[in-house]
Amino acid sequence: MSDFLLPDIGEGIVECEVVEWRVAEGDQIEEDQPIVEVMTDKALVEITAPEAGVVTKLYVAQGQIAKVHAPLYAYQVDGDNQAVDQVSQQANKKNSEAESEAAQSIGSASTQTAEPPTAKGTLAAGPLYNKVPASPAVRRLVREHALQLTEIAGSGKDGRVLKEDVLAHLDQASQTAASSSQTVVNNQTVKKQAETQAPRVEPLRGVRAVMAKRMVEAASTIPHFHYGEEIDVTALLALRERLKPLAEAQGERLTLMPFFMKAMALAVAEEPIVNAQLNAAGDELYYYPQCNIGMAVDSKTGLMVPNVKNVERLTLLEIAREVGRLTTSARDGRVDQADLKGGTISISNIGALGGTYAAPIINAPEAAIVAIGKTQWLPRFDEQGAVQRRAIMTITWAGDHRFIDGGTIARFCNVWKGFLEAPETMLLHLG
Predict the structure, then answer these.
(1) Are 329 and 335 in contact (CB under 8 A)?
(2) Please, where are the H alpha helices in 4-80?
């Protein structure tokens, strides 16, 4: 029998949460078969079997924390028939005991019906989810309401259960209970019970835990300098509308983000210190030749900042393709570790959700981040003094004030603003 040790699954990661076991004790497994999904500080990771055999023991229960280099599960390599027989006998014994308990329960209450056995012959007990595909956030919602994924019809791809499916199931159950209930509830009693209920406690793990740690470190160790500005994106919106059909013909969705990134990479060439990083000792600056621009994504598992590599070398279509890929991966909680490393400057497009201004926190060890507010159509005076309707976007920069001063941020922002207000000028600088 061999123990499978949890391997290194990311730089600096020492533990992870077991989200879902794909197998049970006694199951036959094949090489490269998915065994378990675990949630690290950064992403959801699927762990596969190193070789064929039989699972003999699961050391870490679903929802619990597993340590790197500690045993995750035990298995018997194919060929050891004696060990396999022992595992099968143990599994059969557990099944017999479970079936006996179920039979006794049926005998004691003739109106009750035992749960049907699963494919392995064991009774379904607790939220095992029977391998129904769903994200960690959806599974947490299901646990909070004491449901099982098998009870909910999934509307996603391959039967994947979405948050909307869980809410619809809860709403349907609530309506059914309300129509069948004949009891009038005293409102004052309900209010009193609500006031005395204890708060729900949820452990801070995974992406949210690392976000909390990094935000505290950045806010307490980096002196932030904030700089706000308005950008007239009327011409940029018009250009995007003209290019959208061409991008769609290439199978890409063209948003404003590729324009923001490309203009930023061109502006970095004018003020390279904005793309630099200060070492841990605080006595050396590292100037990076590549511009790896991160974008904050509000995922189901928490805030993630994957980055598009080498933006200075990419076309708008190539940037759009990477933005789409990273956004989808982040929202599913399955971003590759490589996509989360190596960022040099970041964008937070909070305006897509709402809000005009924001004071972003720098994504250390980077030196700058910009928060983009929503675009509003506002009256503005032209050169002749006439009022025109213009698309105005508000932005707020945050810079590391240890080595970036206000003048640097202002000059950098002016260059970036110039490219966005007259996007055709970017053509002069494209290689």
Answers:
(1) yes
(2) none
pLDDT tens column, 265-283: 999 999 999 999 999 999 9
405 is catalytic: yes
**Residue 384, phi then psi, degrees to nearest 5:** -90, 0
Selected catalytic residue, list 8, 32, 85, 405: 405
Return the number of other C-beta atoms located less than 10 Å from residue 135's C-beta: 22
Of 169, 224, 226, 401, which is the active-site residue? 401
Write out the two tokens for 96: 């017999």
Q: Distance (Å, rounded) from C-alpha 246 to C-alpha 229?
A: 31
Residues 6+ away with beta carbon under 8 Å from 29: 23, 35, 49, 52, 53, 54, 55, 75
Residue 56's H or E segment, with its range, is strand 53-58
Q: What values do phi and psi take at 361, rounded to 5?
A: -100, 130
Q: Residue 182: CB partners within 8 Å, gap ≥ 6?
A: none
- Pairwise CA distance, residues 150 & 131, whole Å: 9
Quickly count helices (H) and strands (E) in the chain: 10, 18
Quickly state the pLDDT bin for 108 (edges 50, 70, 90).
Answer: very low
412: left (phi over 0), alpha (psi -120 to 50) or beta: alpha
Mark whether 401 is an active-site residue: yes
Q: What percent of the chain has pLDDT over 70?
A: 81
- Six-digit token pair at 147? 């449901």
The predicted pLDDT at position 106 comes to 37
